[in-house]
Write a structure and sequence with these properties.
heterodimer; A: 113 residues; globular; B: mainly beta; six-stranded mixed beta sheet; 12 strands
Chain lengths: 113, 113
């Protein structure tokens, strides 16, 4: 059974903390993505990676960075958490190729207080 | 740029009613089109897809046809069940941009017995 695993389902952090969200996939996919999901806004792309050590900004990269040191792992970093980063964060992976399916993790609900 | 517009919810139906959720898109080139579903407390999973004009995607009684002339990919089901209650996302990806998925805002479906 294919799987994308996010390290935490729920996380509470304080304003100003550095926060790491981890994502691991076991499908040998080239592409990995981080989205945030907010009511009324759908899913918005933060960053994506198409290969190890490669990264590209998505639509809302401000306040975030990413790391992909190994093919199976893609980390999202909040350099200094703020309350407006309270959200649901979804990781996804997909193989290269047109029209390929993306597989999603269960999400991490982050609350910044 | 690329974008997806889908009808706002919630959509409230009785069991066995007919379902339509509208989705239209704007894209350069020839996108692939998807419907993803998110059940309560879970990540997104692919429901169906279509990769070229006039293709019909289908799964679990749901259908959607890729209409290039109207830039639409409406989701339909002839008889909904309580278990279909979820949030439905329309999305597209293009052959450029590393197969990034662009999502609509999501439509919540509530089916009552």
């Amino acid at each position: 059974d294919v799987k994308v695993t996010q390290s935490s389902r729920y996380l509470v952090k304080r304003t100003g903390e550095k926060v790491f969200l981890e994502c691991v996939q076991d499908m040998d996919h080239e592409n990995m993505f981080w989205y945030r999901q907010d009511p009324g806004l759908g899913l918005r792309l933060i960053y994506f990676s198409y290969d190890v050590k490669m990264k590209e900004k998505g639509d809302i990269p401000e306040g975030y960075s990413v790391s992909r040191e190994k093919k199976e792992r893609f980390s999202l970093i909040l350099e200094s958490a703020s309350t407006n980063q309270t959200s649901m964060y979804l990781c996804a992976s997909s193989p290269q190729g047109d029209g390929t399916e993306a597989f999603f993790g269960q999400g991490t609900r982050l609350t910044v207080v | 740029g690329n974008s997806v517009t889908q009808m706002e919810g919630p959509v409230t139906l009785s069991e066995e009613a007919f379902l339509t959720i509208n989705c239209t898109y704007t894209a350069t080139g020839y996108p692939s089109l998807f419907w993803y579903v998110q059940y309560p407390g879970e990540g997104l999973q692919l429901l169906l897809k279509a990769t070229k004009a006039d293709d019909k995607g289908s799964n679990k009684g749901f259908e959607a046809t890729y209409r290039k002339e109207t830039t639409s990919f409406h989701l339909e089901k002839g008889s909904v069940q309580v278990s279909d209650s979820a949030v439905y996302f329309c999305a597209l990806s293009t052959s450029t941009g590393f197969q990034k998925l662009v999502f609509g805002t999501g439509t919540r479906l509530l089916v009552s017995p």
